[in-house]
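To the wet lab folks,

You asked to see what we're planning to order before we commit. Fair enough. Below is the target structure as tokens, and below that is the sequence we designed to fit it. If anything looks off to you, flag it before the synthesis order goes out.
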């Protein structure tokens, strides 16, 4: 299976998740937007921990790109806080959630459909900040994402990225669903490697999307290779009353603050 086919499956998968009201597709409420307009707001790159305000700095009047960040969540909050926000996402249904919040609450938001490895929709040095919540797990190769992020940021700009702890992917998914942790996969994990087309079809029918673990070298070294300086890092756990599931044993997500010199 080639990368274009993976992108098509994941795009359609996220459209289906909007229809089934996956938590990462449910837009923020009117009340959240009203509070953000009054200066009371927070956004997440990972399931639980709000991004430190020091990582975001002053957002009012800044150009922010929500990268693979559809769903009517972070984009509208940052727009209500005064930023000029562009939400970029593969899924038309996810972007429709952002557009619906903008219409409902009178926000100005630009929504553009596309794939994260190719930001040719944007001129170089267009943004002050990129907000990239956990989503590169859906891309087989993330080096182009970091390179493109660096290109479209202005000098002195910031890339905030959330991503999965790769160790999550060593476990057998079916056993884990039954509450058992069985080590099964070598890292870096790929949903497509070593699987027949029939097995991939069964996986997509069950999970909607295809995922890739990536190494920490690809996540963190990939950002520094693209010219960023890492200036902040934290870890987070899964949603649910802590400690839930695998989060009882280790943090499942991480976030970086990277600066373009
Ligand atoms: C977990 S959601 C992240 C957005 C959500 N608002 C959040 O806070 O986590 C993952 C998003 O990545 C998008 N996505 C998946 N593959 C993509 C790709 N190749 N390019 C751009 N967006 C992609 C999906 O459509 C989905 O909106």
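Sequence we intend to order:
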């Amino acid at each position: 299976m080639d990368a274009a086919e993976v992108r098509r499956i994941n795009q359609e998968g996220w459209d289906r998740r909007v229809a089934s009201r996956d938590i990462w597709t449910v837009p923020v409420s009117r009340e959240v937007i009203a509070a953000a307009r009054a200066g009371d707001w927070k956004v997440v790159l990972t399931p639980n921990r709000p991004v430190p305000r020091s990582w975001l700095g002053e957002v009012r009047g800044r150009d922010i790109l929500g990268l693979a960040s559809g769903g009517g969540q972070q984009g509208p909050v940052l727009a209500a806080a005064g930023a000029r926000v562009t939400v970029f996402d593969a899924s038309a249904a996810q972007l429709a959630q952002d557009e619906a919040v903008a219409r409902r609450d009178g926000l100005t938001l630009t929504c553009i459909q596309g794939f994260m490895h190719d930001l040719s929709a944007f001129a170089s040095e267009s943004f002050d900040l990129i907000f990239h919540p956990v989503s590169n797990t859906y891309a087989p190769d993330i080096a182009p994402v970091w390179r493109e992020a660096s290109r479209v940021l202005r000098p002195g700009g910031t890339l905030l990225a959330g991503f999965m702890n790769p160790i999550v992917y060593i476990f057998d998914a079916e056993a884990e669903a039954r509450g058992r942790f069985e080590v099964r996969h070598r890292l870096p994990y790929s949903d497509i490697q070593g699987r027949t087309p029939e097995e991939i079809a069964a996986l997509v029918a069950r999970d909607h999307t295809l995922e890739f673990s990536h190494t920490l070298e690809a996540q963190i070294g990939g950002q520094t290779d693209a010219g960023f300086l890492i200036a902040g890092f934290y870890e987070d756990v899964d949603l649910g009353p802590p400690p839930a599931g695998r989060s009882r044993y280790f943090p499942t997500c991480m976030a970086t603050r990277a600066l373009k010199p």
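Structural context that might help your review: Residues 7, 10, 14, 24, 68-71, 73-74, 89-91, 94, 115-116, 133-135, 138-139 surround S-adenosylmethionine (CB under 6 Å). The first strand starts at residue 63 and ends at 67.

Thanks,
Computational group
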